Each structure stands twice: as C-alpha cells, then as structure tokens.
User: What shape does this take?
Amino acid sequence: MTALLTESDLRAALRLVNEARGLPRGSREQQEALLRGLLDLVGGQVAIWGEIDTGGGIYRDFDFGWSGEAERNVFVAYARGLTGVAPDPTIPLFLGRARGPVIAVTRQDLLDDRRWYGAEHVQELRRAARVDSCIYAGWPGGKQRFGMYSLHRAWGEPQFGERERALVGAVTAECAFLRDASPVAALPPRLRQVLSLLARGRSEKQVAAQLGLSLHTVHDYVKGLHRRLGVQSRGELLAATSGA
Assistant: This one.
C-alpha cells in the first residue's frame, strides 16, 4: 500500500499519527484531530466517526464538514433510521472485506459507478446531503461490531483514488492506540456520564434527576450502552466496563 506514497506523503502521515498519539487516548479530541488531519491529506470535506454492526446498523458518534445544516440533517435522520431511504449498498460489501485488523477502501473498490449512481441511496440521500466520493476505514470492534470512520468529498468533486486510499490505510494501520482504546473511553461523553452514575449504584430515575434529563432519555442512553457494548443487562454492562 505504501508503494503508492511519496516520501512527502509518508512524512505527513507520520506527523499526523504522532500528533494524534499525544492527545488523550480514545477521546473525541484525539479522534477528531485524526480525521481533520486526514481530510487535509486527502482533500476531503466531510468526516463521520462511529460503528456499524453486521446488519448494517449505523452508530454515529460524531460528524463534521457538511455544506450546511440542512445537508447534515439529511444524514443524521438517515443514521437514526427516521427515513425510508434504502441503506448504503456498499456497507454489506465493506463488511464482507473487514476480516483483517484494519481495512481502508474507496467506494470504487466496492461498487462500480453504474450500480452506485443507480442506487436509491445515492440519488435520494447523497444528492441531498451533497456528498459522493468516499473512503471507508474500519477494524473489528466488540461483539458483531466494527469501528469505522468515513471520509467524503462534495457532490461533483473528483473521486478519491489509490493514493488517498493508501494514505488513509497507512495512517489507520499506525493508529492502534485508537482501535485498542478502552470501551468506555470510546463512548460519547453523555453515555460515559450515564455509565459512571450507573456504576455508582444510581437507578435510571436518579441518573435522570442528577443530569436534568427525562427518564425516557436516560432509558434510551442505557439501551445505547447495551447495544454498543454487546450486553443484555445492567449486570453484564457493569461487568464489561469494570476497570475500563
């Protein structure tokens, strides 16, 4: 993969890895710094960080770089399952390849132009969100989960090529500190707050009162913790994260 990269590319990739390594391990600050650096290196606009499961479910932690709030809202509604738009046709193909410790692929590696631009997902969602060309990078996560981030160019921009894919692959392969972060460190801040209070013996009602949230919202957060960590009960949740 690195044969495609120049000495300047490799130096820039190494500098980005070292800068990210110096930030709090597993933090959003570290993850976002990595993605912003990668967008600069490959000439991308939008970045998305999260997880996917073997059924294609999307668990978005954060995203940035959209042309505007309307474009971002299109994606967020889709990720939350609030639209009837067909799923991304490349995700099952990506999951079929994600068998090693890390993978980085372009959309063209997974699906040809005819099938891509003929897909409902592209015509109804990506056009509205004003993003097209993409690189996916991922690695095995928890039970039936894959950690993943994606980089996107604006609609109408040239497709990512082999150099960009090689850059993303080289950087991701060197960032074991991101993939190996504790399951708690990788959680969004609000989920970490809820988990911390549960670990202190608080009930969901007490968590809601302390954080100024509705009981319904806290219950949704707890269900989110179960999904992310592959557990079925509060006991399993606390056992899975003890010492993390």
User: Anything to note?
Assistant: Residues 61 and 188 are 6 Å apart (CA to CA). The radius of gyration is 19 Å. The first strand starts at residue 46 and ends at 53. The chain has two domains: 2-179, 189-241.
